[in-house]
Write a structure and sequence with these properties.
The complex is a heterodimer of chains A (about 290) and B (about 350).
Chain A lengths: L18 E12 L2 E8 L2 H6 L7 E6 L3 E6 L10 E6 L3 H7 L6 E8 L5 H4 L3 E7 L3 H13 L7 E7 L8 H7 L6 E6 L10 E2 L17 E6 L2 H13 L7 E4 L15 E2 L2 E2 L6 E3 H5 L6
Parallel strand pairs in A: 7-8, 7-11, 8-9, 9-10, 11-12
Antiparallel strand pairs in A: 1-2, 1-6, 2-5, 3-4, 3-6, 12-15, 13-14
Chain B lengths: L1 E6 L3 H8 L4 E7 L5 E5 L19 H4 L3 E8 L3 E4 L8 E6 L1 H14 L6 H9 E6 L23 E5 L3 E6 L2 H8 L5 E3 L2 H16 L10 H7 L5 H8 L5 H4 L7 E7 L5 E8 L20 H20 L9 H5 L6 H8 L7
Parallel strand pairs in B: 2-6, 6-7, 7-8
Antiparallel strand pairs in B: 1-9, 1-10, 2-3, 4-5, 4-12, 8-9, 11-12
Helix pairs in contact in B: 7-10, 8-10
The chains are: A alpha/beta (about 290), B alpha+beta (about 350).
């Protein structure tokens, strides 16, 4: 007998069920990093699939397993789901072995995504380290495709070396765009041919003039070390903790708040996150 | 609520009647102090009416220890597999704490994304609860799970010669209407005996845990070295979670058949004390040490779940205390955090 919960059972709509999607293109990015363009086989579903910047989806490789991957494509470009993936675990290894036109399973989108309604009308400062560019790219293109809704749009992106730069072909254009302040850096340049900044990502702050912490939202994504140093820098610039947005990584096995693998304190990264303000994060121990 | 009374000699007839609504499961004695759920064999004497806690709780009927979620093949993708979900089951002998634990699970498996597997069974399973007398490991009263006024179809309270029959649902009403001649109306003596039972039971609790302000206390005790001391003792065997009626976390994996074309996606009960619970691809573990994992389990039950749903994810059944091979005592640990004990 069900007492307190009024639950509508809808057997035709199992939230765990992956839908078939086809890999329509694979673009190598950096060593062990590729951008996969996926399209749901069901055309109507593909068109209706609606995301928010910063969300993720559960990707299934048939016969191997399932894992959460952030969505790199913005909601402004429907029909195709892009995922920039590093080859690092069992599922991603199997994904890298698949040729174009292979079928995978996909379900989602999950997570809160960036609070874009609050961010609009403000300056947008995006800071990415390494693969952190993957989820931030959805926000970047959302902002560029809705350019009038934002004031300044700034992107600071750092990787270890020039060959690790993701979305390289886009950056050649992004750097020259007049409506975007885009700065890239590498920790080291063994080639000697790198035309841009050399140094850690925080060294790019010098290139951005007149950041106003009261009218700016900062969205950061990267490895733990990036959070540490970037947040220190933002706090020095008097950013409110609630204006610093982080995208946290966990192994969301179900993506829908059941399996508990992504819990941080009383939050589920899959439902309450993966985007947390720094204020949330300092109140969530073990968060970074 | 509809209440009736039934003389104990009618229990066989009551159980026989239950069989019309599905397969009846009852607690039976397994070893000296252990019980398990088994299909009713028709012998009332084989039912362990005095069983306080089956080794594995009734959770397993709603949420299988291991279940196939999907069958897949490379052409058609994933197809839901759940034939056995449709079976009608009657659980006879679940106690108040067990009924509360189901509400705890309901909160998780409902919400924006409904878990069909759990709720299909939830709708197909009839709950016939029975009253109990606590032993030294029961602390359901401290967890607010010692009584139920809803969440069951029928509830039997032992009043000596009679059972008080609480009818809690329309299905429960159908069940009693199937056998009208074994029930009698309640009278003043029933009320008197019920109150006697209640008072006796209330006074029988030996184990008490003060939960007032516990979430805040646990916040302050986040860095207490006791967590690591307990972590040193914890074997990470997962027993506490497997026997816990409110633990719900699970792992998902795929197996492939020998044809390399088809296979199954299944899930099985997991435990946040296992080393790889917060491990992510690339090898970073967000809860690296055992003390931190143990703390996570306690904090989740007494703090995190409470914040989300207004009640703790612990019903005080005492299973984890009995099951722990390292003698880690949930209540003692929390008492130590409250400063009521110096060690645990």
């Amino acid at each position: 007998m069900l007492s307190k919960q009024t639950v509508k059972l809808d057997p035709a709509n199992n939230p765990y069920k992956p839908r078939l999607a086809r890999i329509v293109s694979i673009k190598p990015q950096a060593p062990d990093h590729k951008l996969f363009q996926l399209r749901f086989e069901d055309r109507d579903y593909a068109e209706s699939f609606c995301t928010r910047p910063g969300q993720f989806a559960e990707l299934s490789i048939i016969g191997v397993g399932e894992c959460p991957i952030s969505i790199s494509s913005p909601p402004t470009r429907k029909g195709i789901v892009e995922m920039c993936v590093r080859r690092t675990g069992r599922v991603t290894n199997a994904l890298f072995d698949l040729p174009t036109n292979s079928m995978v399973g996909l379900r989602g989108p999950y997570g809160n995504g960036y609070p874009v309604e609050d961010m609009e009308g403000n300056d947008l400062l995006m800071i990415a380290g390494g693969l952190g560019m993957a989820p931030l790219r959805s926000l970047l293109w959302y902002a560029l495709d809705n350019r009038a809704r934002f004031n300044r749009v700034i992107l600071l992106y750092g990787t270890r070396s020039p060959e690790d730069l993701l979305f390289r072909e886009e950056f050649d254009d992004l750097i020259t765009r007049a409506d975007l302040e885009c700065h890239v850096t590498v920790d080291k340049d063994p080639t000697g041919n790198w035309p841009y900044n050399v140094g850690v990502v925080t060294s790019l702050f010098d290139k951005v003039d007149n950041l106003n912490p009261d009218t700016t939202y900062a969205a950061i994504c990267g490895p733990p070390v990036v959070y540490k140093f970037v947040i220190d820098q933002l706090l020095k610039l008097n950013f409110s903790k609630g204006r610093i947005l982080m995208s946290l990584e966990r192994m969301m096995k179900c993506g829908i708040g059941k399996c508990l693998h992504c819990s941080i304190g009383h939050k589920y990264t899959c439902l309450d996150g993966p985007i947390f303000t720094y204020w949330d994060a300092i109140n969530l121990r073990e968060s970074i | 609520m509809k209440s009736l009374r039934m003389a104990k000699r009618h229990l066989p007839k009551f159980l026989e009647s239950l069989g019309k609504w599905g397969k009846v499961y009852v607690p039976v004695k397994l070893g000296k102090n252990s019980y398990r759920w088994e299909e009713f064999d028709g012998e009332v004497d084989n039912i362990a009416l005095d069983a306080l806690r089956t080794v594995i709780p009734a959770k397993k009927f709603f949420y299988k220890p291991r279940e196939v979620m999907f069958e897949y093949d490379k052409t058609n993708g994933y197809t839901q597999a759940c034939a056995e979900c449709e079976e009608d089951v009657i659980l006879f002998g679940i106690h108040s704490c067990g009924i509360h634990s189901l509400e705890t699970l309901d909160n998780i498996f409902a919400g924006k994304y409904v878990d069909n597997y759990y709720f299909t069974r939830r709708k197909n399973i009839t709950i016939v609860g029975t009253s109990c007398m606590p032993d030294k490991h029961c602390f359901c009263k401290s967890m607010g799970a010692d009584t139920v006024d809803e969440g069951y179809d029928i509830f039997l309270t032992d009043l000596g010669d009679d059972f008080l029959i609480g009818v809690g649902s329309s299905k429960g009403d159908d069940i009693v209407n199937d056998n009208p001649d074994i029930y009698e109306e309640v009278d003043e003596s029933t009320t008197k005996r019920y109150l006697e039972f209640r008072n006796k039971r209330d006074e029988s609790f030996e184990l008490v845990l003060d939960t007032s302000d516990l979430p805040t206390i646990l916040d302050f005790q986040y860095d207490n070295p006791l967590w690591d001391e307990l972590g040193e003792r914890c074997l990470a065997c997962g027993s506490c979670s497997m026997v816990c009626p409110t633990c719900y976390c699970y792992n998902v994996d795929d197996t492939i058949n020998l044809d390399s074309e088809t296979g199954e996606r299944w899930r099985e009960w997991d435990c946040c004390l296992f080393r790889d619970h917060a491990l992510v691809a690339g090898g970073h573990n967000f809860r690296e040490n055992q003390g931190g994992r143990l703390k996570h389990r306690y904090l989740h039950k007494q703090q995190a779940y409470l914040g989300d749903f207004g009640r703790t994810a612990c019903v005080g059944c005492g299973r984890c205390i009995v099951a722990c091979p390292a003698n880690i005592d949930y209540v003692e640990c929390l008492k130590a955090m409250r400063g009521e004990m110096t060690s645990a």
